Amino acid sequence: MATPVNTVNGIGPKTTEFLKTQRITTVEALVQRGVVILENAPGFNPGRATTVMKEATQMLSGCSTQTKSKTSSKVKAEKKNKKEKKNKKKDKDKKSKDKKNKKDKKDKKKNKKDKK
């Protein structure tokens, strides 16, 4: 049974597209071609290529040390949600600060008026 190349940790959509241009669509074909093919992929250096190739080899032998617990889209969604929450908190803090500043200005005006 052929295992799709995009199931290997470290191989995302861009790398999958690159490998397709090299006629590599399965993990088996990737391992057969060797680490050099990954070294030529955009965004890869020899160290990353070696790490990803080790993962691919381990997948074939059935003893993968890592499993894809989350898809990249889920990870991106979580990061986006965290960022949105952070931005909402900043907005809320800013509004609170603005409200306080307005009140302080109002109080200063009132105090000036009272002194006259």
Structure description:
The protein is mostly helical and 116 residues long. The chain is 70% helix and 0% strand. It is built from 5 helices and no strands. Helix 2 (27-33) crosses helix 4 (46-61). The longest helix has 44 residues, at 72-115. The protein is rod-shaped and about 90 Å long.
Brief descriptors of the model:
mainly alpha; rod-shaped; 116 residues; single chain
Uncertain residue segments: 65-70
**Which word captures the global form?**
rod-shaped
Based on secondary structure, the structural category is mainly alpha
Q: C-alpha Rg, in Å?
A: 27 Å
The proportion of strand residues reads under 5%
Count of runs of 4 or more consecutive helical residues: 5
What is the string of SSEs from the N terminus onward?
HHHHH
How much is the average pLDDT?
A: 82
How much helicity do the residues have? Answer: 55-70%
Structure summary, number of beta strands: 0
Instruction: Characterize the main sheet.
Output: none
Distance between the amino and carboxyl termini: 90 Å
How is the topology of this model organized?
Layout: H1 13-21, H2 27-33, H3 35-39, H4 46-61, H5 72-115
Helix pairs in contact: 2-4
Quick gist of this model?
This protein is mostly helical and about 120 residues long.
